[in-house]
Amino acid sequence: CFCWRRRPVRGRMSDAESLVEALRYHLQAMYHGTEASERRRSDRWLQKLQRDSAGWGLADAILGGRTVLVPADELRTQASCEALLFAAMTLHVKVCGDLHELPETQRVNLREAALEHLSRWGCGPGAASAPPAVVKKLALAVAALAVQTSWDGVFAYVERQLALPRPEGATAVDLAASVDAVCRTKRVAVELLTALPEQCAARRLSVNRARREGYAAFLRSASSSAVAVVTSVVGATQEATHLLVERRDAELSGAAAAGSPGGDSTPTQSQSAAAARHATDFALDCATRLNSSALGCLQSWLCWSDVDPGMLTNNPLFLGAFDALGHADLGDVAADVVVEALRRYDCTNPDHQAIVATVAPRVMGLRPLFEAATARGDEDDAMGLCRIFCEMGEAYMPLIASPLDANQLAIVDLELLCARHPARRVATLPLRFFYKLSRAVRQMPDDLDGSASGLSSQGAPQSQSAANAANNTAANHHHQQSTQNGQNHTGPPASPHRTTSSSSSEHTNTPRGGANDDGTARLLQALVEPFLGLTRACVIQAKRTDDDGTLDEFARDEYGLGDDFSRHRGDLADALGDCAFFLGPDAVLEIIGDELQRACSSVTTTTTTTTGVSSSSGST
User: Fold this and answer.
1) Cβ–Cβ under 8 Å, residues 216 and 201
2) Has this prediction a pTM greater than 0.85?
3) Of 76, 303, 311, 378, which residue is 20 to 30 A from 14 by alpha carbon distance?
4) DSSP E strands: which ranges in 536-614?
5) Given pLDDT bands bounded at 50, 70 and 90, which one contains residue 367?
6) Distance CA 311, CA 509 (A)
7) How many CA atoms lie within 13 A of 176 on its CB side?
8) Beta partners for 455?
9) Cβ atoms of residues 229 and 282 within 8 Å
10) Closest of 121, 111, 118 to residue 146, by C-alpha
11) What value does the mean pLDDT take over residues 110-120?
12) pLDDT exceeding 70 applies to what percent of the chain?
């Protein structure tokens, strides 16, 4: 539907064939060239082609299988995959920024062609060999075109694509083929549904403000329907996969019975069983990708549109995201869904209390998963769960830094558990939470200069006798907690330099009194232990290990600009400053001294042992 313009992009290109050959050369140089200058030159050429009006026809021809670069049915070479991906990217770029080059009459033809390409490479004969990014880019192109043309029939198109008959098949192989075809077709529709709110909010999309806002309002009005549609997709997929697994197991059981002693097994039956197993695994993998796309669709609508929080409280797809957090293929996207829900719905908004009551206990119930991931050394799973904990801590800060008892310490303990994780990228995440917490509790609406806080307005400790009373109380509490948790810390417990309400008589300021003062005092005293624990965790993690390089390498890097450990140590130093802001500097310095003494004792013991062994060897 697009004409090739016989206009050179670089040099003298007389026709379409020379343009295709030039594209082949530059794609090869871009992806497989050995010289950096050659790759940069090819990259500039490809970008220029994407901006040229010839890109319309070239992208359409490649996606339609009408060039030698990409066959119409199946991709057999890496070069074909690279050319197809470039064409999909080019179409998206042209739709976003250069739609004005096409007359109004051709835009409908463009939409029909883009939908045809999306169907061809999403669920057609060549779908199995096409890179997954091709379908995503084509879906983004169609969605961008829908926003720019105010296409209100997009939901009708999605519903037609999803209105497929139930998968059927006489054997497990036939049923697996049917499930695979249905899942691929539905995944195309789900990817398009995912791209709509994202493209409507995309800054790179060249569309006037009135049209963008009008289409955004149209999407908001349809958000509940969109979530319901994608939820039904997952439900139908689960039914089909359960039926497929039952059919496969029945056929495998029959083949096993025939192969047992006394059975009448044939080579054909064994081959059929193997084929059933292989086809079922392939179909189940396709169903998993569909479920992943469905969760990504939910995350997109939560992020870019206004989804009614009331419908999420009993939505199977949203609630299933918590169950999918331990899944190898769905864990990351499920974590994105939960994180987006925590960001989107304000815990102080009365209209969001139902979703807060749904999310909070489920997040708190993820602690065993995090502990199990830490125990088996699965850093990726621990990272995803830590993201959720940190997001909840920051999103629910108004509830945590409150004099009302809302079981705040449970969330703080989760953050401290993450801060003690052996992997640095996991342990660094909760440091921002503790920074916000240390500031939030200083802004609580009560007398922070009085008996509740034990700190002056500059953060310095109060009178010495009051500090000593707080030291004794916190030290005893710290020792009891360490005993209960099975910790065996050597050296004296750290001093929190916080006062209790019994020391209020020594303050010159008079507390305001009331229930809020009592609640604030309890909260601040309860937060002493977590901040002490964070201080110790930061000091421990500040130790350089063998994986961080030698001291000579560290000395050569004067400012640590290229040293990951130096940057990590900078984050830890900031966190220690936050602890000092809350606890007082003496408490932090005491823990640092305690850890330094412990390290020196360990080195002394090791040196003494080594010297003793050497002396014994010499005597011998």
Assistant:
1) yes
2) no
3) 76
4) none
5) very high
6) 50
7) 21
8) 461
9) no
10) 111
11) 95
12) 78
